[in-house]
Amino acid sequence: xxxxxxxxxxxxxxxxxxxxxxxxxxxxxxxxxxxxxxxxxxxxxxxxxxxxxxxxxxxxxxxxxxxxxxxxxxxxxxxxxxxxxxxxxxxxxxxxxxxxxxxxxxxxxxxxxxxxxxxxxxxxxxxxxxxxxxxxxxxxxxxxxxxxxxxxxxxxxxxxxxxxxxxxxxxxxxxxxxxxxxxxxxxxxxxxxxxxxxxxxxxxxxxxxxxxxxxxxxxxxxxxxxxxxxxxxxxxxxxxxxxxxxxxxxxxxxxxxxxxxxxxxxxxxxxxxxxxxxxxxxxxxxxx
Amino acid sequence: xxxxxxxxxxxxxxxxxxxxxxxxxxxxxxxxxxxxxxxxxxxxxxxxxxxxxxxxxxxxxxxxxxxxxxxxxxxxxxxxxxxxxxxxxxxxxxxxxxxxxxxxxxxxxxxxxxxxxxxxxxxxxxxxxxxxxxxxxxxxxxxxxxxxxxxxxxxxxxxxxxxxxxxxxxxxxxxxxxxxxxxxxxxxxxxxxxxxxxxxxxxxxxxxxxxxxxxxxxxxxxxxxxxxxxxxxxxxxxxxxxxxxxxxxxxxxxxxxxxxxxxxxxxxxxxxxxxxxxxxxxxxxxxx
Lengths: 288, 288
Fold this sequence. Notes:
- The structure is a homodimer.
- By secondary structure, the first copy, chain A, is α/β, with parallel strands linked by helices.
- Chain A has 9 helices and 12 strands.
- Chain A has helices at 23-35, 53-57, 63-72, 83-86, 105-108, 112-127, 139-152, 183-201, 207-217, and strands at residues 12-17, 38-43, 77-79, 93-97, 131-135, 157-161, 164-165, 223-230, 242-252, 255-266, 269-273, 276-277.
- In chain A, a hairpin with a 2-residue loop joins strand 9 (242-252) and strand 10 (255-266).
- The radius of gyration of chain A is 19 Å and the shape is globular.
- At the A-B interface, strand 4, helix 6 and helix 7 of A face strand 4, helix 6 and helix 7 of B.
- Strand 4 (93-97) of chain A pairs antiparallel with strand 4 of chain B, so a sheet runs across the interface.
C-alpha cells in the first residue's frame, strides 16, 4: 500500500535489544550500520515477555558499557525508554500470533511470545524503521516477528542474522553470565546440536534421529525440548531439509538456555548453519 | 519516542471506511480535508470484523458513487485494497484490547472488536497517517482504537467526530438501506436515546433511569443492550456525567443497529451530545 509519510532521505535500521550487549547484538548493529544510512538501537528490558519475575529481577544490565559498545558499532541513536515512556498505563492491547507463537517457548513460557510480539509492534509503530535486525538464535521469535510484520503490513524488512557462539560453542546470551558453575554442564546443549548438524551434513534427515542426538547429549531432566521445525511456521517437521531448524531448550542451574541449528536443503545441496564461532573469548564470557 | 522516518512536509489524515458512504463518512473526510494537507481514505469491507457471514454477504456497496463523493469532499487518495493485498495469507496475527473490546459489541458480536482492532492496526502500520478520523456513532470502536494507538505507540492523533442523524433522528449507517419496512420501527432506538438525553439535560443522572428511558421506547425482544458507560473504558457508569456515553443496540428485521448519546458534565455544566441532524433527507435515506 501507499505510505502517507515520506520516508527519510536515508534508510533507517533498527536493532531492538534488552541490553547487556554481547557480540550477537553487536553483529546486528554492525550489519545495520553497513546496510543502512542511520542505525537506531533500543535498550529496553521488556517486562511483558518475562513469565518468571525472578528471571526479570536478575536480568543483567550495564548501560554505560552498552552505550559505548553500540556507539563503537556505528549506532547513531540509542533509544533507552523508561517504563513510563513505553507504557504510561498498564497495556490492555495485546498482539498475538496464532500457532507460531503458541508452540515451544509459548508453552514453556506462557505469555512470553505475546509479550515479544506486543513490544516489537510498539517499537515498529513508534519508530517506523525501514529495516529491523534480529538474531537467528531466537528462531521462534524471528518467525513470530516475520509473520506479524507481514500480517499487520508494517513497511519494514525483517532481517534475520546468524547466531554467534563462544569459542567452545555456547550460544551467546546475556543470561550466560548467570550460569556460574553450571557453565560447563550447559555446553551439553550446543554439543548435542553440533552432533545433530554433523549427522545432517552426513545425510541424516530423520527428525527423530536428529532430535535424539540433542537429547542424548543433555543430562536427564534438564531438557525442555529438542524439536525439528519448519522455519516459518515452527510446526514440527518429520524430515530435515527444505527450510527447517532444530530448536532446543534446557535448564542448567538457575538459567534456561535456548539454542538451534538451521538445517536447510534444496536442489543446490544441503547445509547445517551452526552460526558464527568467535575466535576469542567473548565480552561476557563465563560469569566475569 | 523519536521517529525514524521524516514526516512528509504536510500532515496526512486518514479516514478508514467500509464504503457505501453516507454523510457521516463525508463529514470525516471534510474535516480531514480542512485540518490536513493530504487526506487519504480507505474503502475496505473488512471480513475480520463480521461475525455473521450473512451480514457480510449483504453489506451494501457502490464504489463509483463512493469515489465521486470522496473526491468531492476533498479526499486526495482513495485506497481500495483487494482482499489479496490486505491479507495475502489468512492472518495469524490478532490485536486485542482487553476489557474495552470485550464488553457490549464484543459480547454480541464475538470477534468483531478484534477484527476491527487488527485491521485498523494494519491500516495505521501501513499508511502511517498523522491523524485518523472515526465517527462517535461507533463509540466503543473509538474507545478501542484510542486505546490501541496509545498502547502500541502509533504516532497518530485519533479524532472522534460527531454522529450524524437523518431528519427523523435515525443514526446514519450504511446498513440502514437494508431496513426496508422495518425503518419506522427502528426509529424507536434513537427516540429512546433522545428521551434519555432530554432527561439528562433536565438533571437526571441515574444510569438505571436513563437506560430505562431507552428500553421503554424499544419493542420487547428487539433490544440487545442499553448501557451507560465511561467513554474511555466502556465500563458501566452508575452516574451520568464526567465523560459518559449511553450506548444502545437493537435488532429490527434483518438489521442490527447501534446508536448512542454522549452525556458529559463537568464544572462548566452538562450537555447531552445527540450528534448532528441533517436538514434534508440523506443520500441513502430509506431503502432507495
